[in-house]
Amino acid sequence: DADLSGFTDARMRLLDPGLAELGRLQVSDGRPHETALVLGSFRRRANDDWDFVVGGRGYAGGLEELLRDFGVEVD
Questions:
Q1: Which residues contact 42 (CB under 8 A, 6 or more apart)?
Q2: Are 14 and 40 in contact (CB under 8 A)?
Q3: pTM of the predicted structure, to 2 decimals
Q4: More reliable by pLDDT, 1 or 22
Q5: Nearest 5°: phi and psi at 70?
Q6: Residue 70, CA distances (Å) to 21, 38, 64, 74 in order
């Protein structure tokens, strides 16, 4: 089975319209035993604006585990 152990020297940058960096996530250690990865998420604020939150979370159980973490039923 494949995992994300080869996922090294990867990065994601969040930029504003003027290309100024607002956030960065670097994955340099690989992700052995993980088969799904969330690099960030959109969150709705109380005033109905949206934020993008940079952050990495890996799932050893793959897409099924990721979906369950977000409340999706998987058969």
A1: 50, 51, 52, 53
A2: yes
A3: 0.69
A4: 22
A5: -95, 15
A6: 28, 11, 10, 11
